[in-house]
Amino acid sequence: MEAAINIPINSTAQASVATEQMIIFEDVSKFYGEILGVNRVNLSIAPGITSLVGPNGSGKTTLMNLMTGLIQPTRGRVKVLDFSPSDPEVYFRHVGYCSQFDSFPAGHTGYEFIYSYLRVQGYGKKVADQMTWQALERVGLTEPAKRKVAGYSKGMRQRVRLAQSIAHHPTVIVLDEPLNGLDPMARADAIRLFRELANSGLHLIISSHILHEVNAMSDRVIFIESGYVKAAGDVEGVRNELEEHPLQILVRCDQPSTLAARLFQESHIVEVRIHDDRMGMFVKTRNTDMFYELLHHAVLEYNLNIETVATVDNDLNAVYHYLIGARQEGE
After folding, report:
1. Residue 287 CB: number of other CB atoms within 10 A?
2. Based on the domain organization, do 84 and 200 belong to the same domain?
3. pLDDT in tens, 24-65
4. What is the CATH number of the domain that holds 291?
5. Which positions ≥6 away from 309 have C-beta within 8 Å?
6. Looking at the domain assignment, is residue 2 inside a domain?
7. CB-based contact 69:85 (threshold 8 Å)
8. Cα angle value 23/217/205 (rounded, 5°)
9. How confident is the model at residue 96 (pLDDT cuts 50, 70, 90)?
10. Helices 288-302 and 256-263 sit at what angle, rounded to 10 degrees?
11. Could you say which of 21, 24, 99, 179 is the most buried, measured as most Cβ atoms within 10 Å of its Cβ?
């Protein structure tokens, strides 16, 4: 069995969140015959935007389908707030799902696609009509609402699926690749909507391969590979736990050789690489606190003129590479 990095997703801020406001996975495994979907998943997810990150086939969609009750775990228990998938009529009033699959009922307009869903949910004609138009307005599709979905662009089809997932005002919204197919302006609008929904106290569970956008919008991330949760938490917290991967820091200064000689005296410094223009360096350290303290003393001791100090790889792309990409390169 593979060993996952032991980083709990519920931070100190999340610890105060009541259980009935959490999405909880308790030792959850899902197998499709002999094929592993996910294995030994333990998570407690608080409100806000939680992004699932991992390569294709890693288990992201399986986790989402477990949350939405579309599949049942082989072992363990999934609890979404205080609602159980075993009571779907109640459950789906509180959970919205935007699938990545680009399929629609034949002949439906955008309006009909959402309205018929709300009617099946049990809403009356007048209320369903109002909720449909509200959802279409939120995603910018009121003008083409009465056109058939078959004539929509890929981005418009993505937005109408998003509109359906939020039309009934759910508490938990599960979005599988919701930014796929959207142009840059539509993606920016979608991210603003996601943050607006999250700020109102909702759960948004999002999978995406667009790492810089995930990094910008997420409150926390779950890294998954081959069915195993490798790490979970806020990006900075996960990065700080990766002691086997030293943090790389950019320093631009007027005396890089002097600073490099001082840095090499410390055991936590793994590598120093001076820039070609001799006006800066990349430093790899296993202890950022000790590095910044050392840099402070070096500035006073050598009268250094520091232009820039910045972490180079303390973002989602770097963490993703460390947790998943490096292993794939070695296979």
Report:
1. 16
2. yes
3. 999 999 999 989 999 999 999 999 999 998 878 889 999 999
4. 3.30.70.100
5. 249, 250, 251, 252, 292, 295
6. no
7. yes
8. 25
9. very high
10. 130
11. 179
Spell out where 5-130 has E strands. Answer: 23-32, 35-45, 48-53, 75-80, 95-98
- The three-class DSSP label of residue 316 is helix
Q: Are 175 and 98 in contact (CB under 8 A)?
A: yes
| Long-range contacts from 258-263, C-beta under 8 angstroms, 24+ separation | 258/302, 258/304, 259/295, 259/298, 259/302, 259/304, 262/294, 262/298, 262/301, 262/302, 263/294, 263/298
CB 259 within 8 A of CB 304: yes
Please tell me whether residue 115 adopts helix, strand or coil conformation.
Answer: helix
Two structure tokens written together for 279: 């006006």
What is the DSSP annotation of 180-243?
TT--HHHHHHHHHHHHHHHHTT-EEEEE-S-HHHHHHH-SEEEEEETTEEEEEE-HHHHHHH-T
Element (H, E) at 270: strand 269-274
Give the type of residue at 133.
W
Quote the CA–CA distance of 146 and 197 in Å, as a whole number. Answer: 26
Give the pLDDT of residue 331.
44
- pLDDT confidence band for 272 (50 / 70 / 90): very high
Domain count, the chain: 2
Which range marks the domain in which residue 215 is found? 11-238
Confidence at residue 194, expressed as pLDDT on a 0 to 100 scale: 93
Using CA atoms, how far residue 328 sits from 211, 231, 309, 324, 325, in Å, is 17, 17, 31, 6, 5
What is the model's pLDDT at position 10?
44
Domain for residue 46, yes or no? yes
Tell me the torsion sign for CA atoms 237, 240, 243, 248. positive
Q: What is the pLDDT of residue 320?
A: 65
pTM of the full structure: 0.71
